Amino acid sequence: MQFIIEATQNKARACRFTLAHGVVETPIFMPVGTQGTLKGIDCVTANTILQTHLILANTYHLYLRPGIEVFLKAGGIHQFARFNGNYLTDSGGFQAFSMGTQAKTEDIGIAFRSHIDGSKHFFTPTKALEIQYAINSDIMMVLDDLAALPANRSRLLDSVTRTTHWAKQSIAYHNSQKNAKEIHNRLFAIMQGGVDYEMRKRSANELCTLDFDGYAIGGLAVGESQTEMYDCLDYALDFLPTNKPRYLMGVGTPQNLLECIERGVDMFDCVMPSRNARNACIFTSEGKIHIKSPSYKTDFSPLDSQCQCYTCKNYTRSYLHHLFRAKELSYHSLATIHNLFFYLQLMRESRKAILNGYWKEYKKNTLEKLSNH
Q1: N or C: more exposed end of the chain, with fewer CB within 10 A?
Q2: Catalytic: 269?
Q3: Which of this chain's residues are annotated to bind substrate (predicted)?
Q4: Does 188 reside within a domain?
Q5: Environment class of 36 (CB within 10 Å of its CB; exposed 0-12, middle 13-18, buried 19+)
Q6: What is the pTM of this model?
Q7: Sequence ranges of the binding site for substrate
Q8: Looking at 145, 213, 269, 304, which residue is catalytic?
Q9: CA 94 to CA 145: how far, in whole Å?
Q10: Catalytic pick from 90, 196, 213, 304?
Q11: Whether residue 90 lies in the annotated active site
């Protein structure tokens, strides 16, 4: 996979790489499409209005419903969902972590019960890939062992050791498939290690010898403080190769994204913009607003006067306030379009600032505006 660094500003980078369904320009935010589509937004809207080129889908959820046989018959997720951009699928490791006692991590894989019907299932590194081959995602994540924070050194060592072991199985299996057919699915590994310097270094060193297409930083935003996360990224990113994409999983606020771009992250995903939209929290260039507030009942300005999204061009705060209060389903769609557009535009403007040499000023000014509310 060709990966080009187009410009840098200290550690911040603007990069470009090509996947099976189009070019990806970084920094990039991937909207979360758990079920293969964004909540409240169909894939045609994602293509035409949001113009997003990479979204995240959930291996665990798609495996349980609709099931891999549907994807095999449909010809993959792109044909099934009618999204002409790229998909990244996670491995299912985070779902096992989030399910707590409903899942059990073993040396050979993860046992879990379906949240739908209670049926028993087992993910191994190769099974996680087989599911993702059926989905036909453009970027596939290897199965990893995620440790909640805080965690002691023993638990972190288990996590790193098991993650490396599974990564070796995954890339060996993936490379073996290339002998039978052309593989367009790119494979990313996931660094673990909590906020422990030596564990992060060990995890990165072990994974980087395996030459994956890209590397993710996992195991953050799972219980540590924001300061601990930033401090960890200050050294952890330096352990990863500069000639591969760097993906920080599950982070975060607009402020988080800017701070992490500053530290060298290329790719992000988070449920925050869509989940917050559904709960009346709207991101704007001047900070967050809560659209359910009575103060917006007769406010006929757009959600954000600086925004050029479909929602802001056509509707007012007053109307969105009314839709939310009336529990109209169209509220979720319109608010989600805006919040996702805001995140995507933040990445586009960050990229532009890095390419044109004014990243430092852009970041400072944007953070000041975002802190107004």
Answers
A1: C
A2: yes
A3: 90-94, 144, 192, 219
A4: yes
A5: buried
A6: 0.96
A7: 90-94, 144, 192, 219
A8: 269
A9: 8
A10: 90
A11: yes
